[in-house]
Amino acid sequence: MKLGLINSAWAQAGKGTEFGINQTKRIGFDTVDVFADPLDIDANERRLIKDAADRNRLPIKSVACVAVGLIDFNPSVQRFHVDRVKKYLDMCKQFGADNLLLVLGEYIWERQVIPPAEQWKVGVENVRTCGEFARSLGLEIAMELEPFKLSLINSVDSMLKFLDDVGLPNVLANCDISHLDLVRTPFDQVKRLKGRIAHLHLSDCDGKVHGDLPPGRGVTPIKEYLRAIRDTGFNRTVSIELEYSPQPERIVEWVEEAYREADRIMRELNCRG
User: Fold this and answer.
1) Distances (CA, A) of 161 to 173, 185, 247, 267
2) 199, 236 Cβ separation under 8 angstroms
3) Which superfamily is assigned to 36-47+59-235 in CATH?
4) CA separation (Å) from 144 to 54, 80, 101, 201, 249?
5) SS3 call for 102
6) Of 53, 100, 136, 253, most Cβ neighbours within 10 A?
7) Residues 94-132: pLDDT tens digits?
């Protein structure tokens, strides 16, 4: 597996794109994931991202997209977000990425107003449309399993049902290790995702709420989940996800710590390569 970093760690600490990519390479990461909205950055920023990654020989493996509007009850909002996701996919192609990491969101109004089955159907149909466009570009979509009670995809069961309902070979799962733990996924359930994992996120938390901490700062059984994922045959990219460092001025140390601990775990499992 390759070890990567999502560049949002740098952006949320107020560091520029080029600084972040340069530091990602210096620290020792194999790859980088990009968290940037194509509607918020211009062509110059896109070129800067691609040029900095190329100069550092740091492949961009994934672009992260939160598109909760795909399950909005307003058709006009859905259409806007389908078009927005397609622009993300065009940017993925420009960057040479493997996949678009897609966060779908949560049921609205505590599932009390709109029938949950209807919101699920809308999500499936819109992701299928996006997946067909991704396939035309030679790209995958990796659906993120979220750890929140009302998330559409918040368990291995709901992930597999969603992927089956979409029914496209290039719409696959993203496994986030701390999310798996927060929803109390038994280790042996991970094997059910064999052959259906496109991407992997790695972070730690306190076992109670979402945290995205460096490995070792929380209680997540990272090694056990990573072993279970490795045993499915997954051998692609593990991307560290770090959010909102409590000391932004020490973000370099924060990322270095995360790298050291993740690298150690991967080497102990003989899966870094």
Assistant:
1) 11, 16, 40, 33
2) yes
3) Divalent-metal-dependent TIM barrel enzymes (3.20.20.150)
4) 27, 21, 7, 9, 30
5) strand
6) 100
7) 999 999 999 999 999 999 999 999 999 999 999 999 999
